[in-house]
Amino acid sequence: MTGGNENGAVLIGKKPVMNYVLACITFFHGGAKEVSIKARGRSISRAIDVAEVVRHRFLPDVKIKNIGIGTDKLPQEEGEGDSAINVSTIEITLVRGTMQ
Amino acid sequence: MTGGNENGAVLIGKKPVMNYVLACITFFHGGAKEVSIKARGRSISRAIDVAEVVRHRFLPDVKIKNIGIGTDKLPQEEGEGDSAINVSTIEITLVRGTMQ
To answer: Over chain A, what is the mean pLDDT?
Structure first.
């Protein structure tokens, strides 16, 4: 209760979009300046849904600060060869309010 | 044959990632300075796969110039009420080479 968190991170999984929207809003209401929404693979489109719902429906003063994409290499199970599986990632950083 | 195209656009659908990767490479080899990869809904994760494969595996001098997200409103069929369906969109702009 001594000041809010500076940052929050929300990792997107398979739950409904609104669960993650609520998590973002909770971070901002707790004093977070920035919230990062992270996802990989098929959850990526849900991450964008979350960002869009947060800023258009609930917190109009929230802007997108940055969107980064990347690739994670997942190690294969033993006996399946040594080629790694690549999975795409996204990180959407939302920022609240006063800065340009 | 009189100079290349300045820009290309690749709309991501349900085909394999490599089809769209080839489309991007073809634009760049034809002289395009920028190629926009556009997707919406569940195709968004494939759009990121395409961008990652193009720049990491085939064209290391290609950089991400910008990533934008948005929402498209799809009109409902008649008789299903007048609420529109919202679908998230992404546009990844790749740029080749020399500029910072």
So the answer is: 89
